[in-house]
Amino acid sequence: xxxxILDSHEQGEQVRKWLEKNATSIVVGLLVGLLAVFGGKxxxxxxIAHRGEAMSQYQQMMAPEIDDETFxxxxxxxxxxxxxxxxxxxxxxxxxxxxxxxxxxxxxxxDLRQAAQQANPQGVKTIASLRLxxxxxxxxxxxxxxxxxxxLSSAGFKAAIAxxxxxxxxxxxxxxxxxxxxxxxxxxxxVAAPGRDIVEMKLSDLAAAGxxxxxxxxxAAESAPAEDEPGATESNAEEASS
Length: 242
Known about the structure:
Layout: H1 2-61, H2 68-81, H3 86-101, H4 105-118, H5 122-138, H6 142-150, H7 158-172, H8 175-187, H9 196-215, H10 232-241
Helix pairs in contact: 1-2, 1-3, 2-3, 3-4, 3-5, 4-5, 5-6, 5-7, 6-7, 7-8, 8-9
């Protein structure tokens, strides 16, 4: 029993000495842990508040009757102070749409280019790229639109990418490739998917245009000028000299 008590006493002394020796390290470790927990919590709360402010700015920007000056003020705030949130990219999409309605395609394309490069998350960036491609098609910049589409590989947007590719190819006059693109778009869609009827209509219109082109009569060949009869030149020359 005495040995056991001695052993316990020795063990207690060893623990006490170890605690005295390492007290500073223990306290520092606890403080670091507490700071990590509560500091992380404060950081999370700060991020939530930051995103909430961005959402509020975006909601005010999207008010139905907002005037241009107020719209631009909210857009500037979102792109300058909240560029790390998805609302900055969404604001760029809204601004581009507003500009397209005013037939200002140049400004819309500039905004969509920026959003396609800088927006987050990836979904917003892909939507910006698709709208950029559509805007480029509308201005006749079909090859650039196709290059923009070639850079996209988002699995969730396969149908939309294929549809816009079909639009570009149809605008370019490549009906066979456009038909393939529209068929690919339909293959990515469910039977009841929104927008499926639009793609089907585009495919039908494309087929109808192809049939009309085949039925059109060939253009009449220009008649070649009749060759002068033998001796006509000489006869004319004689008449001129007489």
